[in-house]
Amino acid sequence: MYRTHNNGDLRLNHVAQNVVLSGWVQKIRNKGFMIWVDLRDRYGVTQLMFDADRSTKQTMEAASKLGREFVIQVAGQVIERESKNPQLPTGDIEILVETLTILNSALTPPFTIEDQTDGGEDLRMKYRYLDIRRKPVRDNLVFRHKVSMTVRNYLSGQSFIEVETPYLIKSTPEGARDFVVPSRMNSGQFYALPQSPQTFKQLLMVGGMDKYFQIVKCFRDEDLRADRQPEFTQIDCEMAFVTQEDILQTFEGLTRHLLKEIRGLDVAEFPRMTYDEAMERYGNDKPDIRFGMEFATLNSRAQHRNFGVFDQAELIVGIAVPGGNAFSRKEIDQLIDWVKRPQVGAMGMVYCRCQEDGSFKSSVDKFFDQEDLSSWAELTQAKTGDLICVLSGQTDKVRAQLSALRMELAERLGLRHANEFAPLWVVDFPLLEWDEDSQRYHAMHHPFTAPKPGQLALLETDPGAVKANAYDLVLNGNEIGGGSIRIHDKGTQSKMFDYLGFTPEEAQAQFGFLMEAFQFGAPPHGGIAFGLDRLVAILGGQETIRDFIAFPKNNAGRDVMIDAPAPIDNDQLSELNLRLDLKP
Ligand code: ASP
Known about the structure:
8-stranded mixed β-sheet; Gyrase A, domain 2; 5-stranded mixed β-barrel; CATH 2.40.50.140; 22 strands; 17 helices; binds aspartic acid; globular; alpha+beta
């Protein structure tokens, strides 16, 4: 038997018991006649004591040869500690070791395996298995497990069935590129890895499964952005015979259950906001509503005052930054530089101080009098001591820029409290989205999303105005879930493909199986998918998803531990009938 207890188990009431423990050597203090060792496993740390007076010479000798991260087994007696450690659950006791067995030696680890480590990100990724021995990383994985189990139990309790769908499939469009896998047996042909199980879950509805979910890996070959993973996990769900309202109720239930179970929070009914309203009030379809700084349109009070920049602008929009009058001139200049960075892309920023004496001081005093500025304050709901920040230009761009500024300021002002949770449904998304590059409309969600009832005809006349039966669940400024009611008849689906620029042949080749299935009695259906990695990070009060993934990829999409992706050798290539023709 390797152990009678784990390293988090023992307390004062175990004193005088003989126990066997196994684990890793975390720390060694060698005083010659006395040696203390911290022994670690997943459950905790227990202090071991080797005493020249009471342990055998052989044991003392073996103990003096221990190194960090050696794997050992000890047998001994639980004794009360003389100097207790209140930081440690096992801090009242220690083990007086009788026998020590070295199960495996270890190289000196490249970084310290303690809560605070000296290892940089790259090094810790290369030796992720060592990083996982650290409590903060381990705790995150345990936390993720708890969230997954809570989701599984809840959905299972609501009669959802977890069904596995294949990974080797044909393209499912979610707006990214596919990762592809060559087929050896079908020379020259490729599988695609699923961007989501979208078509399969719809087929499960045609198959009468009624309520499906799956905690499932999805793969998207996208340009890498900070904290995005090429493979990630979704809680993927689909239901038959449902309206949008049924879906919102069901998954609001799941989310509320998670907040209660995981964070102990009772959250009121989630507010709902249309996409148009979210864009108008926050410039963003996933607004963080934990704090104010709502957008105010200033056109009526900012144009026709001979200020060319505003006169030429489609939209002039401002926010009131709480307490922002305290910013120094230098700090404001830095903010202006911040919005002018290429990542944000504003041409400049107009600001107005709401001074303590009730007067206003703006960067455009030449054009605007106190009355104008006071009306800006009224519209933005600025109070004495605030700073009004104003951007102008083309509507979509300005909204995106001011939204970025709003989030940045909230971050700087400490308004994004990690332990506050503000969920929100955003509904009535546009069905289509104009794509400048290809000069055509794309499905905003995906091509299987149904338009709102009665809106199909609008497709011919004003496609950009068609609203979809699509919704997102937003939590603290993050889209944590999104879904839609689906098209479930062949006619509408093929019309949609046609509209999105698929030729009938292309639509048939790619999605013939789905349209065929729709002819065999497809029930009305709809669903949603949550991004599990992000959900777990947010519930954990953090934002970096990598910290909650056991073996994440770095920002260049590489696994630096196993060194992937990697070239394959010529034999393997020729077996696959592939030839590399790399451009220099
Ligand atoms: N398949 C969709 C996605 O990955 C979710 C859904 O529509 O249910 O975003």
